[in-house]
Write a structure and sequence with these properties.
With 545 residues, this protein is α/β, with parallel strands linked by helices. The protein has an eight-stranded mixed sheet with strand order 3-2-4-1-5-6-7-8, with helices on both faces. The protein contains 22 helices and eight strands. Strand 5, helix 10 and strand 6 form a beta-alpha-beta unit.
């Protein structure tokens, strides 16, 4: 979504960081570039003026001039102000103390309300709630049927006493203007809340009708549903691709209905994304959720700080960690740890398990896009063919269980059979087996505590932070003593060092705690001096607290 904006801001800051000092002229030039980038991204003009005004005010202040690195300080200011216009802090749903919690969805036709209703229901069900969807859109052709299909895919029940507009006719009012519903949506919404109370559903999600443009009838109907159902949350669903039109639409709904939050749909599109940067400031209400795809699980809680980091090409590592925690099975992780410690080889069965976990995390392109600095590799990301996963899986599944556990027995005839079974060439099978052999070597290197091959700064490797300084010779390895007792002592010490190195490698590979640190609280676990991203501390405390 924010590719164009991110590219321009990244280039602006790259030019700024080359300067040792930042003058007022440099600041004005940077602000001008930021203003043009935001306007090109369809951000509302009042929001752009307010945003650049705050950057100028803080940029000319003492916090920049007294900073050790003024250019980095300006980037920090832009990041903080970007978080502010995106809503400031993460806001979650306010659930009622006395169920059911009534959530009403409002917005224009085609903004994605019905699809989001199913996604929200699935998300709440996964969190242990018992949601129910209410089909109160009786005007759009087959809207009730669509909600029933979405509810079935999400595994959430749907309350639909009225069938609505099933023939696709446009029923006009007596005045000849606008459209009317096939039934009373207000009664349906009220009955839906009562039905949820009778059947002990703790959340009710009401899907209301939209229009092709804002009109009086739409506002009156939405307002009546909110009043009659005493909705606890009114979420305004807006298409993130509509640009400047988002401002007028958001203001109309905020004034006419009274919204409590916003949902951005179609955030996975290739539009410029001005709506996302405008709607929170214009409405004064936070963005709660972002819809990132067509699947029922393609929705996420909106974090302003993480979205700002993505826009500024700083990555979104916290979201990546959360997705990995959901995708990777704890039992599989323990089994991999056991194999690692018992010197068992990494097999194709383990490879399949790891690959399926990565696929459960979602799109590989989206995951790689969350890594810091990936905007510079946009061409490589665009050329990435995610169907390669399916081809690799087909090749592995064409092997027998014996071949998966012992790849060395794959001779020429066996490889030809695998190629025929998976519909690929023998050369592709050879490449897979060669790459797998390299992966096995890497795992063996980790077991010995030697670090990952080719990764500077890892244990046992030269490079940044990992090897000896230039110009200094490495110490020679001591030879074995001729004294049998002394030689035995040397061998015991070497074995102990190797075991300690393996445990350190295990910690970095599987996220485990270093052996011995838990018993001695004074060693190695003081993280007070580290500068961590907001919210990162919970991943370093072993799940405590």
């Amino acid at each position: 979504m924010f590719t164009s904006l991110s590219d321009r801001l990244t280039q602006t800051f790259r030019n700024l960081k080359r300067k040792g000092t930042v003058t007022e002229s440099d600041l004005n030039s940077t602000i001008r570039d930021i203003r043009m980038a935001l306007l090109d991204a369809d951000v509302a003009l009042p929001v752009v003026k307010e945003f650049t005004g705050r950057i100028r005010e803080r940029g000319l202040g003492a916090e920049v001039h007294q900073a050790l690195n003024p250019a980095q300080q300006i980037v920090k200011i832009v990041n903080e102000e970007l978080v502010a216009i995106l809503g400031g802090q993460t806001r979650r749903l306010n659930l009622a103390k006395n169920p059911p919690t009534v959530i009403m969805l409002a917005g224009l036709q085609g903004s994605g309300k019905t699809t989001f209703a199913g996604k929200l229901g699935r998300m709440l069900a996964d969190q242990g709630h018992t949601p129910m969807l209410v089909a109160a859109d009786l005007q759009r052709p087959n809207a009730v049927t669509q909600l029933e299909v979405v509810g079935e895919r999400a595994g959430v029940p749907v309350f639909a006493p009225e069938r609505g507009n099933i023939f696709g006719h446009d029923a006009t009012l007596e005045s000849g203007e606008g459209t009317r519903s096939f039934g009373d949506p207000v009664d349906v919404a009220v009955d839906g809340v009562e039905e949820a109370r009778r059947k002990n559903h703790d959340v009710v999600i009401i899907d209301t009708a939209g229009r092709l443009a804002v009109d009086v009838d739409l506002m009156r109907q939405a307002h009546d549903i909110r009043v009659e159902t005493s909705a606890h949350e009114v979420l305004f669903v807006i298409d993130a691709m509509i640009g400047q039109a988002a401002v007028d639409t958001a203001k109309a709904f905020a004034d006419g209905v009274g919204i409590t939050g916003t949902v951005l749909s179609k955030l996975d599109g290739d539009a410029r994304g001005g709506a996302a940067l405008s709607v929170a400031t214009v409405t004064g209400q936070p963005i709660l959720f972002a819809s990132t795809g067509e699947g029922v699980k393609d929705v996420e809680l909106f974090h302003p700080d993480r979205m700002a980091s993505r826009i500024l090409d700083m990555g979104d590592v916290l979201t990546l960690i959360e997705q990995a925690e959901k995708a990777f099975d704890q039992a599989q992780a323990k089994e991999m740890t056991r194999k690692f410690l018992s010197d068992e080889d990494f097999t194709f069965d383990d490879f399949l398990e790891q690959m399926s976990a990565i696929k459960r995390m979602g799109s590989l392109k989206q995951m790689l896009g969350m890594m810091p600095g990936m905007q510079g590799m946009k061409a490589q990301l665009d050329s990435l063919d995610e169907r390669e996963f399916d081809r690799v899986e087909a090749m592995v599944r064409s092997m027998t269980p014996l071949e998966r556990g012992h790849p060395k027995i794959l001779n020429g005839s066996r490889r030809a059979r695998v190629a025929r079974g998976s519909g690929v060439s023998v050369g592709e099978v050879n490449q897979l087996i060669e790459r797998f052999g390299e992966a096995q070597k890497m795992m063996r290197q980790l077991k010995k505590g030697g670090g990952m091959p080719g990764m500077p700064g890892m244990p046992g490797m030269g490079g940044a932070g990992g090897g000896a300084k230039k110009g200094k010779q490495q110490q020679r390895k001591k030879g074995k003593s001729g004294n049998p007792a002394k030689r035995a002592q040397q061998e015991r010490e070497a074995a102990a060092k190797e075991q300690a190195a393996r445990e350190r490698s295990l910690e970095s590979a599987f996220g485990g705690g270093a052996a011995g640190l838990e018993d001695d609280p004074g060693q190695g676990n003081d993280l007070s001096g580290l500068k961590l991203p907001p919210g990162f501390e919970k991943y370093l405390d072993g799940g405590k607290g």
